[in-house]
Amino acid sequence: MNQDQIINDRADKIVGKALIAAIDGNKFITSVFPFGKVVIQVSGARISGSPKVAITEAWGKGVAMELFHQRKVVHKQLFPCIYWKGMTKVMRSFAVMFRTWISKHVSHFNGTHRQISCWDPTVKNVCPNCNCADKSTSHINRCSDAGRRAVRSESVKELKKWLEYKQTDPSVTHLICTYLNHHGDKKMLSLLPNRSTYSKYKAAILLHDDLGWTNFLEGCISVMWVELRREDIRVRKLQGNEDSWARGLMRRLLQMTHQQWSYQNATVHLKIDGCTRIEHHRLLEEIDQCLDSDPGVLFVGGDVWGPIRDYCGRTQ
Ligand SMILES: [Zn+2]
Question: What is the value of pTM for the model shown?
């Protein structure tokens, strides 16, 4: 650093300390000065940076809040409780196509079987993994298929390692991983051991359950978890900050959801002997029907049906 940069850096540190001391001692004045020629406020907050950016962000937030409320994704009273500041950075950290997928998924516009069945009558509105009827977006993280749950459990193991690496409070690590391993079948509050170590987390857990399983798996963690992490870093004098911890958690949760989507797509599109899984089962059903109507059909005409016998023998 040159001399100017050294002075600037030193001044920033002094100002930072002075600001913290002023907030601690509640000795500060409002930033709205009298006789100001122009004061721009957006959503009740004074704008000190670009008005264009502030207005765009406030408008976007309002539209998203209305959309989520109407679609019963997040109630408008809970919307401000989500750590959106981290979500902006997390989204920017992903590739463009992944961002597009997330936007479509959380807006319920991804091509689920419920939607595809509307324009393609050959597609049944059932989950290709568990055969549950009406496969909506929310089913992506609620599928009870053993394979899908095994994939999530593996991801939870990886998440646990990361949380431990970040020196997350062991109580929080245990709670989050236990919650995820119940695959949305239980509320977090019901998993709370009756121990005093969790008393400081109770409000965050209640808010977490209000936001719900689906939102959590879509990376929407509450601001209370972030505030608790900041306090934990301060008390235990840990390295790093609460923002990077929150973003790391959000990233991993979104990736877990995408893994479920990918697993389901692999089930639908993966080719087995030139057929998708659905085509494969349809073919087996047709062969079964033929056998039911005429058990000798596979043995008529020498070895013409040999390949089909092979197919059945290999795949059933
Ligand atoms: Zn399913």
Answer: 0.73
Task: State the distance from the centre of ligand 1 to the C-alpha of 8, rounded, in angstroms.
Answer: 58
| Residues 232, 38: Cα–Cα separation, whole Å | 41
Residue 232 burial (CB count, 10 A): 18
* HSE value, Cβ hemisphere, 13 Å, CA-based, for 205: 18
- Ligand 1 center–CA 67 separation, angstroms: 26
Check if the beta carbon of residue 66 is closer than 8 Å to that of residue 80.
Answer: no
In terms of phi and psi (left: phi > 0; alpha: psi -120 to 50; beta: otherwise), the region of 302 is left
Exposed e or buried b per residue across 289-316, where buried means at least 16 C-beta atoms within 10 angstroms of its C-beta:
eeeeeeeeebeeeeeebeeeeebbeeee
Residue 100 C-alpha from the chain's centroid: 14
Residue with tokens 């122009």: 38
**Across the strands, what pairs with 222?**
82
Query: Where is average pLDDT lowest: 91-105, 127-141, 234-248, 301-315?
Result: 301-315
Burial letters for 18-57: b for 16+ Cβ neighbours within 10 Å, e otherwise? eeeeeeeeeeeeeeeeeeeeeeeeeeeeebeeeeeebeee
**Centroid of ligand 1 to alpha carbon of 30 (angstroms):** 55
Residue extents of the structural domains in the chain: 79-269, 277-315
Identify the CA nearest to 152 among candidates 181, 129, 172.
Answer: 181
Task: Give the distance (Å) from ligand 1 centre to CA of residue 149.
Answer: 10
Give the confidence band of 315 by pLDDT, cuts at 50, 70, 90. Answer: very low
Ion ligand 1 nearby residues (CB, 5 A): 127, 129-130, 132, 143
- Dist. CA 192 → ligand 1 center (Å): 28
Determine the distance separating the centroid of ligand 1 and the alpha carbon of 114, expressed in angstroms: 12
The per-residue pLDDT of the chain, averaged, comes to 85
